[in-house]
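[Backbone geometry]
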Amino acid sequence: MNLIAWNRNHIDELVALWNKELSTHFPMRKELFVQNSFEDVNVLEEGSFIAVDDNSKVIGFVVSKKWQEKKKVEMDFKKGWIQVLLVDSAYRGKGIGTLLLEQAEAALKESGAEVIQLAGDPFHYFPGVPEVYPDVQKWVEKFGYNKKLDAFDLINHLVKKYPFPNESSASFSVLQIEEKEEFLSFLARCFPGRWEYEAIKYFEMGGIGREFVVAKKNGSIIGFCRMNDSISPSIAQNVYWSPLFEQEVGGIGPLGIDSSERKQGYGLEVVVAAMAYLQEREVETIIIDWTNLLEFYGQLDFVPWKKYGIYLKDKE
């Protein structure tokens, strides 16, 4: 067995290995793998490796990330991420996973990471370690990772129509491209960090606004909700696993309301507006990713679909 540098020459084999091991719950598309594990500038090349056997067959890999964007966004520069670590089931029990993990951790620490998180990276696949793989959760705990909390993906199969919220004291509309700068300024002020960064990347990747509902009062933006579908300019988190379904799948989230305008029902209303727009676009199933707000979204008939443990390891 040998470790080779992370490179695009093995994309097809890497995707095939993913699907061999994980496609029952998390089917991978080549374009998603390229988007998240090669095109993201935060991939830490020196901490990402491909394991091959003596015949150069791919038998495992690990992808590490460290914040490397040059944009002025509030992100945690002391955190590193292991986006994914996977070993062919036919080769497990031979120390390959341990070696991949150790090499990734060493590179992350060398890059300045003081805390390492499993998943939850920019352009992540998972918010944490999927609960459907309990052996993996036990395995990472042996290496000093501690579960901080659980996170959920929720689902709603839209067996009924959700009417647009017309009786609100706020108005709701699809973001127009000419509102881009106002919207980004709103995010920088109210939600600096990851959500702001994701919106910046959205526009860089060709977004024109149709993936956002904005809430307004007196003509000014006071809130937002993202809504994704199959023709969005990038494959967004809440539609990653849409190949599991035959029907059209959409995604909702994140969403946020200006802190000075909260507790007036606008959060729920902006979600309802997004749901109504997605239904107009003939979406039949909506997924919300990475949340703990089960009661909040339960008001709109969302139920838990997938569960994850969020694991972190502090600097030793």
